[in-house]
Amino acid sequence: MEHQKEYHSMNLETKNGPLLLEGPVPSKELKALEFHEDLVAFRQPAQQHKAITEIADLPEGRILIARVENTIVGYVTFLYPDPLERWSEGKMKDLIELGAIEIIPKYRGGGVGKSLLRLSMQDDYFEDFIVITTEYYWHWDLKGTGLNVWEYRKIMEKMMQAGGLEYFATDDPEISSHPANCLMARIGSRVPPESVQQFDQLRFMNRYMY
């Protein structure tokens, strides 16, 4: 399946000033931008900046960003699932993962995450794909926000729903290890029934199939 990257952008007014949302952004441009020091949810900022530029170089990799002038203050990543995760076991060419979404504290609560996801899904390309995201509470900034896991989960669900992703049940051990963890997905309008069936089999691998 050929990966086409259709660029979209929008301006978003927030209480802290305007942001430019755009993407997918190529690695060369990402390297030239500053990466905000408060983007620390997954790795140290310099390491995460390097990681997203590497994702942008993958055939299927897509990075959309929110920026103030030359500084990235938020981003979302799309790429094939990690080879160590069950979601890669079917080697599905039409299943892609929303791997990470992060916004610096200053711009949270202003709809930046929702807008980034809506912008991502403006790309007709995603109608050929099942987009999944796995939400684990240990990645959430509970300390910084003062929210409990259920309040944070509600915020994450609403944000993902803005991109058309819905809750899907699964017996994946890591997701099942805590009731706040969840799998969400969006099934594109052109995804064939056999791919949906394969996705269902990946969701439930521990039950007997009759």
UniProtKB/TrEMBL annotation:
Residues 23-210 form the N-acetyltransferase domain. Signal peptide: none annotated. Transmembrane segments: none annotated. It holds the Pfam family Acetyltransf_1. CDD domains: NAT_SF. Gene3D superfamilies: 3.40.630.30. InterPro entries: AcuA (IPR024699), Acyl_CoA_acyltransferase (IPR016181), GNAT_dom (IPR000182). One of its GO terms (molecular function) is acetoin dehydrogenase (NAD+) activity. GO terms for biological process: acetoin catabolic process. The lineage of its organism: Bacteria, Bacillati, Bacillota, Bacilli, Bacillales. This is Acetoin utilization protein AcuA.
